[in-house]
Amino acid sequence: MTRVYDFLKKSEVYYLATTDGDQPRVRPFGTVDLYEGKLYIQTGKIKAVSEQMRKNPKIELSAMCEGKWIRVSAEAVLDESIEAQEHMLAAYPSLQAMYKPGDGNTEVYYLKNATAQICSFAEAPVTITF
Predict the structure, then answer these.
(1) pTM above threshold 0.90
(2) CA distances from 2 to 60, 80, 84 (A)
(3) What pLDDT score was predicted for residue 22?
(4) Bridge partners of residue 27, in order along the sequence
(5) CB neighbours of 118 closer than 8 A, spacing ≥ 6?
(6) Of the four, 48, 60, 64, 87, which is 20 to 30 A from 77 by CA?
(7) For the chain, what are the domain ranges?
(8) What is the pLDDT of residues 26-66, one digit of tens each?
């Protein structure tokens, strides 16, 4: 899981895919955090992505960095604890102008039943499960 975190962090931007009914939705994200042995992402409750993950928690992340790419398939699990929100926002001070722990809008999700593949054109894929 640390290798996945490091890859996403180094990429700075990854793309999160959800479903909206029968329509796929993809958007750029930048938040990723390790907290209590879990990999977390963050969004706002008022955003469509939040509603989509609550309706169907199956998501995929994808990013590219240094000639390699990663694809992560997982279930997004909402963690409503203030501590998880505080940890995420401490890692991203720039978000603190828009989000506050316990504000009713800040949401953090951890990834469960995750499978990641790191691929390139020159090497065999590496598979990581967590």
Answers:
(1) yes
(2) 17, 23, 18
(3) 95
(4) 16
(5) 3, 7, 68, 69, 70, 125, 126, 128
(6) 64
(7) 2-129
(8) 999 999 999 999 999 999 999 999 999 999 999 999 999 99
